[in-house]
Amino acid sequence: MTGEHKAAVLGSPIAHSLSPVLHRAAYEALGLTGWTYERFETDEAALPGFLDGLGPQWAGLSLTMPLKRAVLPLLDSVSDAAASVEAVNTVVFGPDGRRTGDNTDIPGMIAALAERGVTSVESAAILGAGATASSALAALSHICSGEVVVYVRSAARAAEMRGWGERLGVPVRTESWEQAAEALRAPLVVATTPAGSTDALAAEVPAAAGTLFDVLYEPWPTPLAARWSARGGAVVGGLDLLVHQAVLQVEQMTGHHQAPLAAMRAAGEKALAAR
Which of 68, 99, 244, 265 is catalytic? Predict the structure, then answer.
């Protein structure tokens, strides 16, 4: 593919995003010359103007917080996955400039778990109730046959997560954050909270730990993930999610059917180690 092609990640804050490292590694491995991938500090107020100012050389965008919901009214079409959680992390531009929104976090989570052999569970627990938690719930709708217990800090967030459960067809029970140690006994635990939130739970990891999916990648490992590994439990990390969702983004933006997972992961690991 010749000519100039542009892509980027938008969000606020954005300086620490690993997306440029992953996408550029993919371009290099695929031999895509003329492709660039940058990062732009962009908040909700600036997003409409940014999109309107893009030229025909733009292939796509990755979106992080706080833009995943703000972008919805600015799109021409939205995938079923993105619509199911009202969150878009990928925008692809058609030849005619049409803007299509997708959510690669959901299939990215499924793929990251499958890579570690987790393709079905009888129950699961989610720590937290933000946008990532709703994507986790959507992923669990494909692999969890029973109840998902969500541990939250507020009644409003609890009601929100039960609402997502109803929309996604997942039986959801909510519990207060004070009971979060109980979550660790589930066969699959998905931690979606900010850095430091789960540190106090590290001492509570059971002897027979199942699988922990901790969506953070910096700092890594989190105290919870480190303790989980020490107990012999399986751990899926934020870099796993980041790489798998980026693989899907690269494929959509470039038209290549198989993005280079190993090269992208190696580039991400190298970049994190250098920080």
Answer: 68
